Amino acid sequence: MPKDSLSELNPPQKKAVETIDGPLLIMAGPGSGKTRVITSRIAYLIKNCGVSPHRIAAVTFTNKAAKEMQSRLQSLLGHGIRGLTSGTFHSFCAMTLRIDGELIGLGRDFVIFDDDDQINTVKRSMKETDIDPKRFSPRSILSAISNAKSQLLGLQGFVENKSNYYDEIVSRVFERYEEILQQSNAADFDDLLLKTHTLFDTEPEVLKKYQERFLYLMVDEFQDTNVAQYNIAKQIAEKHKNLCVVGDPDQSIYSWRNADIRNILSFQSDFSQAEVISLEENYRSTQTILDGAKNLIASNKERVNKDLWTKNVKGSPITVMEGYNEEEEAQLVVREIGRYVDSGNYVLGDISVMYRVNAQSRAFEMACQRYGVPYQVVGGIKFYQRREVKDLIAYLRLILNPHDDISLSRVINVPTRGIGQRTLDELTRTSVTLNLPIFSVIENLSNGKAESISIPIQLGARAIKAVEDFKTLIDNLRSESEKQNLIELIDSVITRTGFRHHLENDEQSEERIDNIEEFRSSAREYAQSEGQEALITFMESIALVSDIDGMEENLDFLTLITLHQAKGLEFPVVFITGMEEGLLPHIRSIDTGDPRELEEERRLCYVGMTRAKERLHLIRAFRRGFRGGSEPSAPSRFISEIPRELIYIPGQTENEGIETSLQDNKIGSSASPSVKNSTQSFKPSRSEASHSFESSSRKNPPTERMRLPGSKHLQAQRVVPVRRRRVVNKIVAPHSKLSFKTGDKVKHPSFGEGIVLNFEPSGDDVQVTVAFKESLGVKKLMAGVAKLEKL
DNA sequence: AATTAGGCATTTTTT
DNA sequence: ATGCCTAATT
């Protein structure tokens, strides 16, 4: 990208940047330079109009997008952007509530309940309202609650609007759910928005503060905002009316999360004088890819047509391939990727494999491991959602806020300390009757005043002892926490609670300890600030990060990603996999019979296709396995919605002539028209990092089934398989030397130094038995996985 | 109270 | 096939 300066913008882009007064709606097609416009606009406000960054807020869809914007502005304006507010709606609201939430009864150190906590809370609520979780799924009840909150209804609104038996059930759970949250001084994701709205609604002074401060407000990915978010934006912008929203209705893919595409219509009616600017020139994709995508999306009925165009080269046809099953699909893809890399024109970081559901990543991971392709999975099982990490977080939260019943229930018996379900039930029951948090019940218990207060509780002496010990444990950690920094605190939690020991006894102890180690180092950057402050900030950052936030651009890794997460990204080469009826229009969207759901699937496919700059592959499997079995699947209807002449099917020769060389396909990385058609030079191929594939493989037609290449010569590039499940989202670079002999001194990242007692090759790795010093003892480790270092 | 076995639902996407 | 939940066992 060239420097963001006004002269390099096309006329509508320029207009979008310079239209600063009054409401503005920017309709930005894929690849139309939206991000540039947003950053240029902010830079323009600051530099040309002399607006203080302090008075500008920019809301993005992910923290990653916010960070990217920040860094681009930084390079444009240097320190001139200090004071700029940028982030997601959720993080903005969390901050607002942290400051002024007390006015609406939210304690300063409230905790944020994530999805997992929410489900637990719903389950508990159902139990306490005698609603059978087998008859009504907690998940669907939660989604009803979330839906109500996203529409700014809240409990009260929901109760008033309920119209059937199911609503009645939900409202009972909802009521209890809110009580638990209140008592735990917690807010769920939707509360962050809802409560901020309420705060602004009921406290004019607070609202005024924000209204006056934010002269300019920008909202990115507007098509994916929900009613609550839009209304918060409206509240803030009400005074100055300088609200700029940027979006593309064709890329709206989050309606299941209550995003409401009608916000775009509302915006136009709420701000009738709003200027509307369309960005229609695409700088990203080849003509062919853009045409394919345009034709696909044209099948949607509910949309306004856009006139997307590009000056880019025609480029290669869209390749459609078919494998027998998902394994062969993956093999096909990985082998094709090998050809790209071998050509020297692409590095792995240029390529991405996209799929509808996370479960699909598995086959690709396995294929990558077999072929030695380093890869990066975005998302999947979220790091902070791993059991051991969540347990540790629950301890930290409890230390911060002992009233957090959900966290307390989570860890009161982890590791097991003789407090079973009976005891916990009894404590919970009492807390409900007394309308007190569980921790307070325990406190009263241990004051020895149980009888005098006449707590109606029935527990054996042994249970009481155990519970009291737990209370003392938390109390001690709590008082220590004020003197310790974050890392010290985490360490004392791990040791004092017996958590470390507990992990060591676990079957997957290595993996779990690794994860805790990872967690510990992620806390490091927060450890500077003082005592509890650090803990609060850290907890908040954990609750609000997304997987995509952690994704790095790394030339050496192939990216595996869901279509949803791919929004906003671009890659020279894109493989969209699982192009099958039931998967890409997902079965759930077909089953409902709601055409709008099917159209959203089509938009999802459109988003995926428009991520591609130069090469687009659509792959499907003839049979797909699920729930153990395997069933035949039909090609996705979306394939047939792409004009045949844009498609190349290997094996069907008549179209082969269309395929152009890779060189002809290259699109200059610059958005400026002058260089676009030139066959620009590629990124220099990085010999030391290049991942060479068996050269003969490129001669094999992709459809022919072939044996996996021998792997010896790939050893150096091989990514070590990480047990069955992945340990960290990013698989780190492989280890160079995996040879050990008895007596070798080795170093483990968390266990420290040790001596090799024994070793035996196992698959591609070596299982090493190591004696570590101190109390750590003898362990069997996979050398590559454990990142063992020879000393 | 803790561990284990067997039954069952589950998988769309995530701030 | 896996993981979660309940029931049964020690």
What does this structure look like?
This protein is of the alpha/beta class. α2 crosses α3. β6, α11 and β7 form a beta-alpha-beta unit. It has 31 helices and 22 strands. The two termini are 45 Å apart. It has a seven-stranded parallel beta sheet, sandwiched between helices. A six-stranded parallel beta sheet has the order 3-2-6-7-1-8, sandwiched between helices. Helix content is 44%, strand content 14%. It is globular. It binds a DNA duplex (15 and 10 nucleotides) through α4, α9, α18, α25 and α26.
Strand count, sense and barrel status of the largest sheet are: 7 strands, parallel
Percentage of residues in helical conformation: 40-55%
Low-confidence stretches: 655-663, 668-738
Number of E strands:
22
Average pLDDT over all residues: 82
**Distance between termini?**
45 Å
Structural class: alpha/beta
Gross morphology is globular
Strand order of the largest sheet: 11-12-10-13-14-9-17
Strand composition percent: 5-15%
What's the Cα radius of gyration? 28 Å
Query: Number of DSSP helices?
Result: 31
Q: What oligomeric state do the depicted chains represent?
A: single chain
Task: Give a quick set of tags describing it.
6-stranded parallel sheet, DNA-binding, 14% strand, globular, 44% helix, single chain, alpha/beta
What is the secondary structure topology, with strand pairs?
Elements: H1 11-18, E1 24-28, H2 34-47, E2 56-60, H3 63-77, E3 85-88, H4 89-100, E4 111-113, H5 115-128, H6 138-150, H7 154-161, H8 165-183, E5 186-188, H9 189-202, H10 204-213, E6 216-219, H11 227-237, E7 243-247, H12 262-270, E8 275-279, H13 287-297, E9 318-323, H14 326-342, E10 351-355, H15 361-371, E11 375-377, H16 387-400, H17 405-411, H18 421-434, H19 438-453, H20 461-481, H21 486-496, H22 499-504, H23 509-524, H24 531-544, E12 558-562, H25 563-566, E13 571-576, H26 587-591, H27 595-609, E14 612-621, E15 623-626, E16 629-632, H28 637-640, E17 647-648, H29 662-665, H30 673-676, E18 745-748, E19 752-762, E20 765-772, E21 777-782, H31 783-786, E22 789-790
Parallel strand pairs: 1-7, 1-8, 2-3, 2-6, 4-5, 6-7, 9-14, 9-17, 10-12, 10-13, 11-12, 13-14
Antiparallel strand pairs: 15-16, 18-19, 18-22, 19-20, 20-21
Helix pairs in contact: 1-2, 2-3, 4-9, 5-6, 5-8, 6-7, 6-8, 9-10, 9-11, 13-27, 14-15, 16-17, 16-20, 16-24, 18-19, 19-20, 20-21, 21-23
The protein binds a DNA duplex (15 and 10 nucleotides) through residues 61-63, 88-91, 114-115, 133-134, 137, 189-190, 192-193, 253-254, 256-257, 356-359, 379, 382, 413, 416, 418-423, 543-548, 562-565, 583, 586-589, 604, 625-629.
